[in-house]
């Protein structure tokens, strides 16, 4: 039976997987900006699940670099993904709100999805140990 902490962690991962499935569909026929946003959300939810796994509280934020900072003391190898986290962090606001933001391309959305999957793999490897 799962502990409350393990259950909470798994719930974050489940929500991330829902975003991953949605992103796969969007990449086939949807908007690149939506795909970029979903990639950011995948990474955010996996990072928050990892924080819960380590019993680290986190504020209500969407900044992946801030979440990375919270993880550094227990998961120093997260720093190897700084480039991916930096890329994905830009997609939260730029894809959700109107403004002077560039149009995103299919190539950018594919790169964002690949970055999100790297974060997913890192997190799942860490919780297996």
What do these coordinates show?
The protein has 129 residues and is an all-alpha fold. It is built from six helices and no strands. It has helices at 4-29, 32-53, 64-71, 82-89, 91-96, 106-128. The longest helix is centred in the first third of the chain and has 26 residues, at 4-29. It is globular, with a radius of gyration of 14 Å. The two termini are 18 Å apart.
Which labels suit this protein?
129 residues
Task: Summarize the model shown.
The chain is an all-alpha fold and 129 residues long.
Task: Set out the fold topology.
Layout (H helix, E strand, L loop, with lengths): L3 H26 L2 H22 L10 H8 L10 H8 L1 H6 L9 H23 L1
Number of DSSP helical runs: 6
Largest sheet: none
Q: What coarse outline follows from CA principal-axis ratios?
A: globular
Structural class: mainly alpha
Query: How far apart, in Å, are the first and last alpha carbons?
Result: 18 Å
Q: Give the overall pLDDT as a whole number.
A: 92
Percent helix: over 70%
What is Rg? 14 Å
Order of helices and strands: HHHHHH
Percent of residues in β-strands: under 5%
């Amino acid at each position: 039976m799962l502990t409350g902490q393990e259950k909470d962690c798994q719930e974050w991962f489940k929500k991330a997987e829902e975003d991953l499935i949605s992103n796969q569909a969007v990449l086939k026929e949807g908007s690149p900006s939506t795909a970029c946003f979903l990639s950011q959300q995948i990474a955010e939810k996996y990072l928050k699940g990892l924080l819960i796994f380590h019993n680290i509280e986190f504020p209500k934020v969407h900044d992946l670099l801030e979440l990375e900072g919270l993880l550094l003391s227990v998961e120093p190898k997260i720093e190897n993904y700084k480039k991916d986290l930096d890329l994905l962090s830009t997609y939260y606001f730029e894809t959700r709100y109107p403004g002077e933001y560039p149009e995103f391309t299919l190539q950018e959305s594919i790169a964002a999805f690949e970055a999100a999957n790297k974060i997913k793999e890192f997190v799942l490897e860490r919780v297996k140990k």
